[in-house]
Amino acid sequence: METPGQKRVSRSGNSPLTPNRITRLQEKEDLSNLNDRLAAYIDKVRSLEVENAGLRMRITESETEVGRELSGMKAAYETELADARKTLDSVAKERARLQLELGKVREEYKELKARWGPRASFRCLPRFRLLLLFPGPSPDLLLDTLQMWI
């Protein structure tokens, strides 16, 4: 019961394009484009995740290498620092020992000067004082020198 203005539309695809059909075809094309864009986006995200994992691996390797280098340098500096401290301690002990010796020599000098004062040659006293100013001579050498001059 067709009216004369109506045409029968078959479902075989030979139908005329109605506005509804045009809208559906446009939506289908839009969805296809959106699916393609989504697939490209997902591929990009996956490739970035793979790249990110690689970069994390490189960072971990670099941190491990830097850690090893730092621990090696730290050990070397700690060893060097310990050696410097030992040297400083030995120098401080030697200085204290020399100061004690110098004090003893000065006391002996005062005793000798008091004992031999009138008979001591006044020319030798300035030389003996000069010897006391410079580190190095042993107390025995100083006493021998003083006795030699007296």
Automatic annotation (TrEMBL):
Xref: PANTHER family: LAMIN DM0-RELATED, PRELAMIN-A_C
Taxonomic path: Eukaryota, Metazoa, Chordata, Craniata, Vertebrata
Entry keyword Coiled coil: yes
Biased amino acid composition, Polar residues: 11-20
Gene3D superfamilies membership: Vasodilator-stimulated phosphoprotein (1.20.5.1160)
Region (Disordered): 1-20
Single GO cellular component term: nuclear lamina
Stretches assigned to the IF rod domain: 27-150
Organism expressing this protein natively: Scleropages formosus
Coiled coil: 24-115
Signal peptide: none
Pfam families with a match to the protein in the record: Filament
GO biological process: heterochromatin formation; nuclear envelope organization; nuclear migration; nuclear pore localization; protein localization to nuclear envelope
Domain of life: Eukaryota
GO molecular function, one term: structural constituent of cytoskeleton
Protein name: IF rod domain-containing protein
Keywords associated with the record: Coiled coil, Intermediate filament
UniProt cross-references to InterPro entries, sorted A to Z: IF_rod_dom
